[in-house]
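To whoever picks this up:

The nightly regression suite flagged Mitochondrial import receptor subunit TOM22 as changed. Nothing in the input moved, so I suspect the structure step. Input below, exactly as stored in the fixture:
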Amino acid sequence: MAGSGDNPLAKIGNTVTQSPLFQKSKRALTNTARFSQKLLWSTGKAAWIAGTSFLVFVVPLIIEMDREQQMVDLESQSAGLLGAPPGGL
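Regenerated output under the current build:
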């Protein structure tokens, strides 16, 4: 039985993995993966900040605007029932 050093496929594999093109490709792939990971992390942090800011600042404003619109509608209905022309004075 021959040793692993006599295997032609092992020799070809070693030659390929030691080639400069393979090394450059491996380095580029590693750098791309690292950049993608950092980009996803930053995007997640930005989404968290945007989401919580929306909940803290915009949602209460929307609720208050809806409440104000309901009050205007109620006043308009009350004025209509009392016979006053809608729209106030």
